[in-house]
Amino acid sequence: MKANAWEWDETLFSGSAAHYGIGRMPYPSSLAATVCDALDLDGSGRLLDVGCGPGSLTMLLAPLFASTVGVDADGGMIAEAQSRADEAGLTDIEWRHLRGEDLPADLGTFRVASFAQSFHWMDQSLVARRVRGMLEPDGAWVHVGGTTHRGADGEHRPGHPGPPWDRIEDLVARYLGPVRRAGQGFLPNGTRGGEAAIMRQAGFNDPTRIAIDEGRTVDRGLDEIVSAVFSLSSSAPHLFGDRLPEFEADLRRLLREAAPNGRFTERTDTIEVVIWRP
Known about the structure:
With 278 residues, the protein is an alpha/beta fold. The chain has 9 helices and 11 strands. β4 (110-116), α5 (124-132) and β5 (135-145) form a beta-alpha-beta unit. α1 (17-23) crosses α8, α5 (124-132) crosses α7 and α8 (222-230) crosses α9 (244-258). The mean pLDDT is 94. Keywords: Methyltransferase, Transferase.
């Protein structure tokens, strides 16, 4: 596949699901309350989480609704989400293995549809139109953005060194090449943008934007940083093929050089909640 002709394929996050719970930092504890207050939720209605991954956002928001459906194109993500929900005793979430493009899939209507770092992987115009048709008249689309695999950029004064992300990216490039990988293809210019125009074309009004910056510092272990790397589409385990053990050994060696005790500290990134209404 040419480097400028990316198309979605089912290997996008192959092998990454088990690394999410270890390598991704949790969303802010105040996120659920922020969404609840902004939408005046009262525990009724249904939530649809599209591109739910292993359910990190789904399970955080599910208690705000009477029932929830999480959908994802990766079977491994759905299996991980089901396992995590079972462990947490959450029985009112239905998990469905399907793409956003397959909606509405006879799922009915919803008070809220949420997307967390997933919409850019989809046929955005198609999914925006289809999800809009699944929302109740007073429903809302909630987009949660922000980085969770790593902390915020900039200086901080941690108890331990920050992970050497520049060197990690250089190591990934040494194994996979200088152009960002994604599934079987490449993303030379990163993931697609233009979300605002697409949402307006689909019939949504100008959004409300809420920034959540708790400013927390988080201590993380070496295994957590390794899993953070493997949780990314650009360095998903399958991309390394037979060289996966070699890459992981080099990654662990690099991290040990940066922090001999295997501990790192980062400041959490700002999380943005964007609320679109039809």
